[in-house]
Amino acid sequence: MTAPNNIRVGLICNTDIAAAAAAQLAAENKLAGIAVLDTNAIYFKQIFASAGVSENHIKVIHTTSWKEQLADWLAVIKADVALVFAFPYCIPQHILDLPPHGIYNLHLGTLPVYKGADPLFWQIKNQEQQIGISIHKMTAVIDNGPLVIEAFTPLHAAENYGLLSARLRVEVISYIQQWYKGLQEGTLTSREQDISTDQAFDQKPAAKDLQIHWSAQSASEIRALAQACNPKYGGATAFYGRQEIRILEAEIINLEEKATYRAGEIVYADSLYGVIVACRNGAYLRILTVSMQEGYFSGSKLFTMGLVKGQQLN
Fold first, then answer.
1. H runs (alpha helix) in 107-265
2. Which residues contact 123 (CB under 8 A, 6 or more apart)?
3. Distances in whole angstroms, Cα of residue 192 to Cα of each of 120, 137, 146, 172
4. Cα dihedral 276, 277, 283, 287 sign
5. Contact 31/57 with Cβ under 8 angstroms?
6. Which of 32, 36, 185, 269 could, after both became Cys, cross-link 8 (CB 3.0–4.6 A)?
7. In this predicted model, what pLDDT tens digit does every residue of 225-270 receive, in sequence order?
8. What is the pLDDT of residue 68?
9. What is the C-alpha separation between 312 and 314, in angstroms, rounded?
10. 85 beta partners
11. Does the pLDDT at position 197 exceed 80?
């Protein structure tokens, strides 16, 4: 094991949120290496390069033999500890035991409620007031190990998936530094997760989770879904006839309307203000930006494409 003041960290990454943290560790001579999967290797090399991390630090792991290659890589770089960012596979215990300090996982969600794939999507969709930032020691069960760092950061009302991810790239650095200092000084404390807590959001969102249900969801729920889908999932899905529309951005507005409208009905449309849709309980959404097969369009552009008052979105 290396001297306590120079613990060498291997990063196992499958998200660009790791880029700033990798650059910080490299600048402090604490980075032993970075492992990325071959499916996203070109993208991640570009991301890490833009953060100032040399490609020499990066090892591409092939999905067909990732276990063997990951074990060999940890031995070659002589990592004292490893930190995982969104790795999609369950790492077996014999690999978790290879670094002297073990392998930890940085998970951007409260555990265990938001364990599993894409916790950021679910937390935005569910309109959480705070986003969880968790670091836990890994076990052979995904996202199930003891917590050593648990922190929270506010989720801003207008923040979509992309904006939140960009902010977290920077914010996670301080928590990684806190974790690293605890390793150095032997002061990390841990607690077991409350496995009795309901875990309803541990799956990657399916197509049904991305679709707007006008009669069941409130205006704020629809807006939150659009933000959770922007940009990673291309927008929240709605249909105009058979035409799919992906809503990327919408705002809740007040209208002095006394008429009763169906949820999903277009109540206003022109080339200046765009398209306004009725929601449950007398609320209204103004569609600001959409994605369609033909491209990206403003809400006002939808009017010129044929969406008019009285028509229905499904």
1. 119-125, 161-185, 207-210, 219-228
2. 109, 110, 114, 131, 132, 155
3. 22, 10, 4, 22
4. negative
5. yes
6. 32
7. 999 999 999 999 999 999 999 999 999 999 887 778 999 999 999 9
8. 98
9. 6
10. 13, 106
11. no
